Each structure stands twice: as C-alpha cells, then as structure tokens.
Amino acid sequence: MKILVINCGSSSLKYQLIDMTNENVLAKGLAERIGIEGSRIKHKPTGKEEVVIEKPMDNHKVVLEIVLNALVDSNYGIIKSMDEIGAVGHRVVHGGEKFSESVIIDDNVMQAIKDCIDLAPLHNPPNIVGIEACKELMPNTPMVAVFDTAFHQTMEADNYIYPIPYEFYEKYKIRRYGFHGTSHKYVSLRAAEILGKDIKDLNIVTCHLGNGSSVCAVQGGKSMDTSMGFTPLEGLAMGTRSGDIDPAIIPFIMDKEGMTFDEVNDMLNKKSGVLGISGISSDFRDLEIAMEEGNERAKLALDVFVNRVKKYVGAYVATMCRIDALVFTAGIGENSSYIREKVCEGLECLGIKIEPELNNIRGKEAFLNKDLTAVNILVIPTNEELMIARDTKALI
C-alpha cells in the first residue's frame, strides 16, 4: 500500500508518498506561500533531481492538484496512476478530548475537528482545508486523521487539570492537552526497538527540541505528562514562545506598557523565548555562534533554555521513579551537541552521563553514553510522517 501523508499549514503544505511494504519514501515536497505572490512547490522524487514548480497557487486545492499531477508526471513522477495511492493520512493538530487515537475521517470526525477550532484557531482551520481539498480531489480514497494531541490523552487528571475553578474545565475544556504527540510516540517506540526491549517495560523521557519544544514522560509506552499545556505556549522557553511565566506578568505589562491583550499574546508567542532574551535570533545556530563570539545575552538565552529542559527531565524522572532512556529529537535535539551536553550536565545523580566523543554527531541515530550501568542517552531523528503513515495503514 502507498500512503500519501499531508501536513497543511495556513500558507504551506508538506507531503510525503510512502510505500508501506518497505516504509520507503517515494517522494516528498513542500508547497510555500499559498495564496501569496511567489508561491512554489519543491518536489523531490526519490532517486531523481528536485523539481521546483513556480506558479500561482490561490488555495490548497490548487496545490494538491499540482502535487497529485507531479506524482504521476512522466518525467518526475513516481507512480503511474492515482489508483496506486491507497489512503491519505492527515496531520491534525488538535483533537481535544474527543480523540485518544487516530481515526478514519467521516462526517462526524470532520465536525469534531471543527468543534476544536476554538482550542487551535491557527492550526485546525488549515488542517480542515487540506482534508476537504483531498476529499474533493480523491473522493474514493480513504482518509485518516492523526492528532498531535491524541498521544497525551493517557495523562491522568492530576496531570492535566489546572488549579483554576473546575467549572472552566467543565464549560470550556480548559486543561493540559500537550502537543508534538506524534513525534514523542515515534521516538519512544523507536527507542524501545533500538534497546531491544518491550516498551511496556520502559520509562523514557523524550525531548522534542526545535523552534517549538516539549518534553514528555513516557511510561510503559503511554504519555504520563508533558510540558506543553492548553496551548503550545506553556512549558519550555522556545524560539519565540515564552513558556512558563507567572501569569500576573500579563496584566502588569498591559498596565505599564498600555498594551492590549492581543498585543501581549502576540509578544508571548512571537517575540519572547530565546529571541526575546537574546535580542538576536530565534535560531539556536545563530545564538551558539554569537555566544562563541562573546555575546552574553545569547549565552543567557541558551542557559535559560537548557535550564528549563533540565528541570522538566528531572521532574519526570522523579515522577516515574526511574528512567531507562533519555531521547533527544527534532531540529535542535538532533543537531546541537552543545545543547545535549548542557542538558545532561549536572544530571549525573540521576545516572545520566553523556560522553563528549559520542556526542559529536548530527542528524542520525546514536547512543551518547558508554557506561552500561547509566541511563541510555539516544539521539533519534523524528519521523512524524512515517508515524502518520503507520497509523493510517493500521486503520485502513
């Protein structure tokens, strides 16, 4: 079975076509600037040169038509007919409490995804647009929704309920949901495979560290707790997001600066994190270079980020009473030896001992510890598209 994986953003669309007989990627691509001047698709068939298609793309349906045509094109296509696509797996950011696993999309599921728009106003609408465009172009092809929040639905109430009046949970479902669930699920399962153990017997802390970052406690293959909350703003300091702050800071800044709530919300999401502290960049590569050149605020930004990650790792180890593996993934986790080293530094009391010579790797699976009595420290590149494809295949 060949499965098309779709990840729709407001002005972008990522896709992969995966042959599930061997889990090989046949083609992948990225459409950018949808509905904006200068729109284009970068289409990369495996074993062939990348093709850049530049033409006006007013909406996601137009993009998907171009993508589907590219997949069957005689020059740079990878399949002979659309009939070879057995199913489509869609990434959907928010499923609320309605979905604890991936589901085949029907009218009831579509309505439930729409009902969650209040919880993810920036993400669910483009996800819905992508699904509806695919249904129109491929009406006889089964579709599956894979939710970022579903993996975390195994959390117990004492981990997801906020200490505010309970009526707000009852009325508006204000609670911790967590995100990056597909990534945390994939790397925890992969860690168990690498270790040759049943995931039901393992306690794993997974660190998805990128421009958006989160940490997850995975006990017996299930999410026990995670750092992101009602929205992706909670938790770690990130590229541009503040993460955990005293909520009283919000009205204080509004009063002192004469800012509206929308302006403060924008500031916390887009102008804070390591960008806000450093004043330089939200890109951790830029910050590491600036730190090496003696920029103290760049160093401080990285120190704050590392400190937050370390606190969550320690808290989750304490909660689970034991840790068998610490996993680093996503852009920073996979590529920054400096961040990995600093996160592990000082955690020797928990059995977390990183080896500098093993840590000098980028973007590939690796063990970072030699001591077999210590906690397994692994780098595992995330593969959310493959996880989506696997869930889709299992359901279809």
From TrEMBL:
GO terms for biological process: acetate metabolic process; acetyl-CoA biosynthetic process. The keyword Membrane does not apply. GO terms for molecular function: acetate kinase activity; ATP binding; magnesium ion binding. InterPro entries: Ac/propionate_kinase, Aliphatic_acid_kin_short-chain, Aliphatic_acid_kinase_CS, ATPase_NBD. ATP binds at residues 14, 208-212, 283-285, 331-335. Its EC number is 2.7.2.1. Keywords: ATP-binding, Cytoplasm, Kinase, Magnesium, Metal-binding, Nucleotide-binding, Transferase. It is an enzyme of class 2 (transferase). Substrate binds at residue 91. Mg(2+). Can also accept Mn(2+). It is found in: Cytoplasm. The active site is at 148 (proton donor/acceptor). CDD domains: ASKHA_NBD_AcK_PK. Pfam families: Acetate_kinase (PF00871). Its main location: cytoplasm. One of its GO terms (cellular component) is cytoplasm. Its cofactor is Mg(2+); Mn(2+). HAMAP family: Acetate_kinase (MF_00020). Homodimer. Belongs to the acetokinase family. This is Acetate kinase. It comes from Proteiniborus ethanoligenes.
